[in-house]
Amino acid sequence: MSIEKKMALIIVDIEKENGEYVACIVKEGEKGYFTTDWRWGTDRQKAQKQADEYNAKMGITKKEAMRLTFQSMEPKRPQNKFNLPPDLYELVCEKAGTPTTFEDSLVTFEEPMNPEDPKVIYDILLQEIEIQAAGARGHPEEVGRFPTIMQCALILEYLRHGVKQQEAQGIDGQDRKGYTDTQDRENYTEN
């Protein structure tokens, strides 16, 4: 499955648990509310049990979980809260299956940042996801928050490649893995 397909399946909530981020997702062609880690390797039955326990802890019934899940999948254009470069913002919207007109969705971020630095955006997104997830917990009627969490997760996953790519760069700017920028991106997308 392509990384774009995986990104499109990230759905609802992210919580710091046992030192790792756990994401609730819906797998293609299946009804349910499954949890997994960022490695996408969680056992399905174990994940389902963990998801049910997690939802119960949050006070969300299976019916509410389904409602939240499928409403979260509605294509909505994400706000560009982080002043992403226009080309990256449009790509994110395209991957999310949302309209690609710019509209009035730019929001200025208050803290100074370099919008070309994936690591900076990555760290901000982690904070934003935690804040929004915490605000939505215990309030399943506030489903409007969840598409934003999904979009943040999607942008986060897309940018993780940029962060990894930066970390792989040597002092002289050469990629240690031997890929060009384009080859590396294509290899990552296919895996």
Task: Note the main attributes of this structure.
mainly alpha; three-stranded antiparallel β-sheet; disordered N terminus; 191 residues; 9% strand; disordered C terminus; 3 strands
Can you characterise this structure?
With 191 residues, the chain is mainly α. The protein has one domain (3-190). It has seven helices and three strands. The chain has helices at 3-9, 44-58, 62-72, 86-95, 118-136, 145-168, 181-190, and strands at 10-17, 20-25, 34-37. The longest helix is centred in the C-terminal third of the chain and has 24 residues, at 145-168. The model is unreliable at 1-41, 68-76, 96-115, 139-147 and 168-191 (pLDDT under 50).
End-to-end CA span: 7 Å
- Number of structural units classed as domains: 1
In DSSP terms, counting alpha (H) and pi (I) runs of 4 or more, how many helices? 7
Which bin fits the share of residues in helices? 40-55%
List the helices and strands and how they pair.
Layout: H1 3-9, E1 10-17, E2 20-25, E3 34-37, H2 44-58, H3 62-72, H4 86-95, H5 118-136, H6 145-168, H7 181-190
Helix pairs in contact: 1-6, 5-6
